[in-house]
């Protein structure tokens, strides 16, 4: 005897909405309007008795009496906000049709026989509905509602899950693979900020080693005490523009001796104050309250503005040596887009290692050009710029030689084999109100970027979305990691690298033990001074061309968070477009106030000198510097505009992306304790 499809009493189809709220599913099975196929009670007009079928007493299959005259049911897609073309929720099988035919003709014997032979398994269907594993109501291969209709994607098939631990050989391979895929985001920031501070090649090598050490330490801390997601921590591009604003202030432009140490100490003090603010926001739980104002519509323009901020630096620097930079960009695009799907020994090697492979190939090509004499000019010495700047015939070649030659850097000669970075290695930090205020806002932007990274990473890994408490804990730990960066003097703060999410999606490796193993090796490599020296010897044109690609990916990753929202919504388009445009236009207005000694500042750094020469004049130099500096930062203007507009313009949760982004979470996943602190430490907190 078959069990009832639904309970005889106390069944309300609307109860499915609690499951639908988590998945974004909209059911046609409701008591508000009739459906083309539903389970109801049928009353035989000829006999006055209830007809029974194979589903149990008092439960019948009723087909619409006059479907041709009934208006079709119109449903509103909860994400797109428009009518959806729906099929019947449960397609009637031929056996079901015979049941209905029997009902209409009064042939109850054929009804019972058909139900016994062709009825579906009601218990199995009921279990599927209760577990939320509903069948694809749109049919196989059919688009579920058009672009923008989003449900929580099925958990991806991972090679290694969050808690998996592979063999020793694989854990080393996967750990190094993870860091190599992020090489572009980890090693190129010192190549920008150290020369801008007046540092030597040896200083660049030292800062490079410091960044590697801090990346390893902070990644381990986040893996055990932060969100515990498999995310690599490192120097973020969020801190790069504020650092350049501080570096190019008027007082540091006028310094001739020990400029690098003084500027680095100023950066250290600002980063420490900003990180303390971030720690307080995170560990006190205040950020969990602020989290309600953050959603994909805010994250998308904020992260995109981080990448777009450097459009004036990217190719203007790379264009100094087009014979190196253009092949580099073409090779990166060829590896990632055309060979990205090629598998080598089971790995998409060209996609995963696109940056290190391209750098090695083009660096070798640039070395051959240097050795072959492509950059040897008559009467010009490779020792630049000191000797060539005095020679009029060589002055026009100085810029090309400096950016293209592979033997310009003396880092390999001057750097020691073993060097262990230590706290306060550049001196005691300098604390000032103006730079601290800039870094406080920067830490807030970095926190918003990390929120997007946490949510996206959890979906890629296939675990529940982190709760506000977990997010707040992660932000607090990132603040502590930035505090370490300020003490060691890396020049920037530390955040979860958003590019890491892309690496997880490609490699299908989401084990936190793999990330920890890779971090241990990075810490060991940071003690070898020659490794930092090799990285510091990368030609500037080559580094700039790689950064063009990386910054473009940052923009794309930021905008990709909009797929959690109604992308066709005019509200969202207006907010994102306005935030991005004003985020570029307002800083351009502030940056047009050029410094008095403009010839002393390289052209690609002129936009970052507006803090000392901007239009704001309040009478206080400290306040003027802070406000002008903040208004010259694209990401700060974009995040302020996006926060204000998204939280004041009316919009539903589905439209804003809150419904799908923050509404995930199933009880089975919560019981697995993916985000729980280590067993011996958790009870203390």
From TrEMBL:
The chain crosses the membrane at residues 168-194, 206-225, 270-291, 297-316, 328-346, 352-377, 514-536, 542-562, 574-594, 625-645. It is a multi-pass membrane protein. Belongs to the nucleobase:cation symporter-2 (NCS2) (TC 2.A.40) family. This is Nucleobase-ascorbate transporter 11. Residues 60-70 have a biased composition (Basic and acidic residues). Keywords: Membrane, Transmembrane, Transmembrane helix. PANTHER family: XANTHINE-URACIL / VITAMIN C PERMEASE FAMILY MEMBER. Residues 106-115 have a biased composition (Polar residues). One of its GO terms (cellular component) is membrane. It is found in: Membrane. The keyword Transmembrane helix applies. Residues 30-70, 83-156 are annotated as: Disordered. It comes from Genlisea aurea. InterPro entries: NCS2 (IPR006043). It comes from the Eukaryota. The lineage of its organism: Eukaryota, Viridiplantae, Streptophyta, Embryophyta, Tracheophyta.
């Amino acid at each position: 005897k078959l069990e009832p499809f639904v309970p005889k009493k106390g069944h309300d189809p609307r109860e499915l909405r609690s499951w639908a709220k988590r998945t974004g599913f909209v059911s046609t099975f409701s008591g508000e309007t009739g459906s083309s196929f539903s389970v109801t009670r049928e009353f035989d007009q000829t006999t006055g008795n209830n007809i029974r079928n194979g589903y149990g007493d008092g439960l019948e299959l009723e087909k619409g009496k006059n479907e041709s005259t009934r208006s079709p049911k119109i449903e509103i897609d909860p994400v797109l906000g428009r009518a959806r073309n729906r099929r019947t929720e449960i397609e009637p099988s031929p056996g079901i049709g015979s049941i209905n035919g029997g009902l209409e003709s009064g042939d109850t014997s054929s009804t019972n026989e058909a139900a016994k032979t062709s009825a579906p398994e009601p218990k199995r269907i009921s279990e599927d509905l209760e577990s939320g594993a509903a069948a694809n109501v749109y049919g196989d291969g059919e688009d579920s509602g058009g672009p923008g209709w989003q449900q929580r994607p099925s958990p991806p098939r991972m090679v290694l899950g969050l808690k998996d631990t592979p063999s020793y050989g694989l854990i080393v391979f996967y750990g190094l693979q993870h860091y190599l895929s992020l090489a572009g985001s980890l090693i190129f920031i010192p190549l920008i900020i150290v020369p801008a501070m007046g540092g030597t090649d040896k200083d660049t090598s030292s800062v490079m080693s410091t960044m590697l050490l801090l990346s390893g330490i902070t990644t381990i801390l986040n893996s055990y005490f932060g969100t515990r997601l498999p995310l690599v921590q490192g120097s973020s591009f969020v801190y790069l523009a504020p650092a350049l604003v501080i570096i190019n202030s008027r007082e540091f432009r006028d310094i001739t001796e020990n400029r690098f140490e003084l500027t680095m100490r100023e950066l250290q003090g600002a980063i420490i104050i900003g990180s303390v603010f971030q720690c307080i926001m995170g560990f006190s739980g205040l950020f969990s309250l602020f989290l309600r104002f953050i959603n994909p519509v805010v994250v998308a323009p904020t992260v995109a503005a981080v990448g777009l901020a450097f459009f004036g630096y990217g190719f203007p620097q790379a264009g100094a040596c087009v014979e190196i930079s253009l092949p580099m960009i073409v090779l990166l695009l060829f590896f990632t887009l055309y060979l990205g799907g090629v598998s080598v020994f089971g790995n998409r090697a060209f996609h995963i290692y696109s940056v290190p492979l391209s750098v090695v190939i083009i660096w070798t090509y640039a070395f051959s050009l240097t050795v072959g004499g492509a950059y040897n000019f008559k009467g010009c010495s490779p020792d630049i710029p000191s000797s060539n700047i005095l020679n009029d015939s060589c002055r026009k070649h100085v810029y090309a030689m400096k950016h293209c030659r592979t033997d310009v850097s003396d880092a390999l000669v001057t750097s020691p084999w073993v060097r262990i970075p230590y706290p306060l290695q550049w001196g005691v930090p300098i604390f000032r109100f103006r730079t601290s205020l800039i870094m406080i806002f920067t830490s807030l932007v970095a926190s918003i970027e990390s929120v997007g990274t946490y949510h996206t990473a959890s979906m890629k890994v296939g675990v529940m979305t982190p709760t506000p408490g977990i997010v707040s804990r992660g932000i607090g730990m990132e603040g502590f990691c930035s505090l370490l960066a300020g003490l060691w003097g890396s020049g920037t703060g530390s955040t979860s690298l958003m590019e890491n999410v892309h690496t997880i999606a490609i490699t299908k490796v989401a084990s936190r033990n793999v990330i920890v193993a890779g971090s241990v090796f990075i810490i060991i490599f940071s003690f070898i001074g020659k490794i930092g020296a090799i990285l510091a010897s990368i030609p500037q044109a080559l580094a700039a061309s790689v950064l063009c690609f990386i910054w473009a990916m940052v923009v794309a990753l930021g905008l990709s968070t909009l797929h959690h929202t109604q992308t066709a919504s005019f509200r969202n388009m207006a907010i994102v477009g306005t935030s991005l445009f004003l985020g570029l236009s307002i800083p351009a207005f502030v940056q047009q106030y050029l410094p008095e000694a403009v010839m002393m500042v390289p052209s690609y750094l002129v936009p970052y000198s507006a803090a000392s020469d901007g239009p704001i004049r309040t009478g206080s130099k400290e306040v003027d510097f802070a406000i002008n500096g903040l208004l010259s930062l694209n990401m700060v203007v974009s995040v302020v505009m996006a926060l204000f507009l998204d939280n004041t313009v009316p919009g539903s949760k589905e439209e804003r992306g809150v419904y799908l982004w923050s509404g995930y979470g199933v009880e089975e996943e919560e019981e697995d304790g993916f985000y729980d602190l280590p067993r011996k430490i958790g009870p203390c907190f």
